[in-house]
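Two proteins were folded this term; both appear here.
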Amino acid sequence: MFREMFYKWLYADMKVDDFEVEWEEAFEEFGLHEKCWANQMYEKRHMWCNAYLRGKFCTGYRTTSREAIPDMMKLQRARFDIRTHDRTATWQT
């Protein structure tokens, strides 16, 4: 089923070449060549496919939702501010 393959591409540790082979096989198997959404997903594979995200620093967060990114950035900034403030206070005493 395509959903299981897609989850694998999202989370599995795999090489780009392996992903490309599996994507082409899935396109053939599920007849996705004429599907606009599938072509758009492939064009954006650098944003969601774990094979392309290997070695990228993501501050420990991963999401497929654009709406969640600003909230995560605010949370990360707040954590940094707290840590920086704590260190500054410790250094001043």
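Next, the second protein.
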Amino acid sequence: MGYSHYWNIMGAAFWQDILPKLVEDSRKIIDASGVHVQYESDDESPPILDAIQGIQFNGRGDDGHETFDICGGDCKTDRKPYDLVVCAILLRAHQLAPSAISIRSDGNWGDWWEAHDLVSRLWPGATVSCPWEETEQTEESVGIKVQYVRFPSALPIRRGVVGIMVVSWPAVNS
């Protein structure tokens, strides 16, 4: 059990067209993040940032968990500091090719706001939106309806607030 992110890259076009740009942008993300990343948590070699080998890195020492590998499809960060870099790179990949990458997370969109802010600062003209679909969900229990409504990604109310919960129950006839 842990906190992980999952992605699926669809089509060779992603690698041919997007990976060189994503590698370049990943360097900017790492530099701007203030988070120290390296090849492995116990290997101080620099991260792999290469258009042929891909993107691979981890946090340093106890600040690392599983190695992020853009070819891997999942990474358990356990919310350690390098999670910011992982999320920002996945957001940038989604910006560059939204139809070529699908992303899910154990977290919600509010957990990604620090990465959202970083990507927004680095590419201020580009829209940063939730890369997975957080749709309205309803639950009914004992006649009480709980409805989760997600705000549009363009409408951040404040950091971490991404939606509201509406609770309603049936009228009582007396």
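Residues 60 and 152 are 36 Å apart (CA to CA). The chain has two domains: 4-122, 137-168. These notes refer to the second protein only.
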